Fold this protein.
Amino acid sequence: MDQQQQLAMVQQMRQNAVGTDAALQPSSTYAVTVEEVMIPTTKGDTRVLVYTPDRDHSVPLPVFFNMHGGGFILGQAEMDDPWCRLIADRADCVVMNIDYRLAPEHKFPTAVHECYDVVKWVHGNPESFSVNPSLFAIGGHSAGGNLAAAVCLLNQQRGSKLPIVLQVIDYAVLDVATDPAEKPSYEEAIPADIARTFNAMYLKTPEDAHDPLASPVLATSFQGLPEALIITAENDSLAQ
């Protein structure tokens, strides 16, 4: 499938996905302020939704960086809006919901470096959001969980200069090198042919699948990485 065919397919998938984001949401509402900002990165300005609890604080707040799912090719930051509100309120932190660039228009490793750059910029400009530059956590769902793990690995490769203390990996695809058909199959899970298509659209070349920033489980060492909370499900074809 060439680039033009990929774009035509993904545009149709994005149209079909409109209106399906609200299938599962928290049952409560939360008192938070939401601000849309543009943060400079090496890939251009990146749109970020910033969630701040509506209460007085005597000290700068920790930060949680969130990345949505969608197989690297679908979705937007608004998908996680209800959950970002919940996290900001319950954890009493600022949530930075990153609307990263999607494939196939922007293939690997664009989104990894873009998300890393957002974390780096916030670390260097904490006064912009009244946050604590030494207390960062990062996480995401599905493809977003992959990006969260990849950002932690990239940070490790660059000398662990960013103070990421926790990663939350939520039903993430952490291995795009193994053919999805060789992974466990469940009726409720993503079909192997769809997963294979998503991976092909994300990667520039098949060799990229073996890069730990694309398949974090293939990293040669996990020493020194932030503590990780890994969430999966019984019938999760992405878990292996």
